[in-house]
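Record type: monomer structure entry
Structure origin: computed from sequence
Chain ID: A
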Amino acid sequence: MLPTLNTGTPRSATGHFVSGSLTAALLVGSMAWDKSSKKTTLKKGVKIAIEGGAAVASAIAATNYIGQGKYLNAVFSLAVGVSSLYLIEKLPLLKENK
């Protein structure tokens, strides 16, 4: 049996999805102020914000599982996160016009 790692109090993956999305949106907003970054579009910003939320939620869920000693569930959570990022990348609604 693998030892458990104390990761603190379990956190809400849903709450961290919102936090990750807002953090990514703020970072994209700061990129928009940079004059050299004129290619920043609304679609790109929304896509990055959603991807940020999915990545953070997946990582938090995996961390919670690691803290409980449920390593297979942690791997599954990360796999769901990677799959989510792939699907978000392929959404036709968020494709950038080139």
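Annotation 1: DSSP finds three helices and no strands in the chain.
Annotation 2: The helical segments are 13-33, 42-67, 71-90.
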